[in-house]
Amino acid sequence: MSIMGASAPSARETQQREKIIATAERLFREIGFQKTTVADIARELRMSPANVYRFFSAKSEINAAVARQLMSEVEQAAQGIAHGPGSAAERLRALILSNETMNAERYVADRKLHDMVEAALVENWPIISEHIDRIDAAIEDVIRSGMDSGEFVRGDAQLAARVVHTACIRYCHPRLMVECADRPVPTSAQMVEFCIAALRKGFGEPGSSAALPR
Question: What are the Cα distances from residue 133, in Å, to 23, 77, 82, 139?
Answer without folding.
Answer: 28, 15, 15, 10
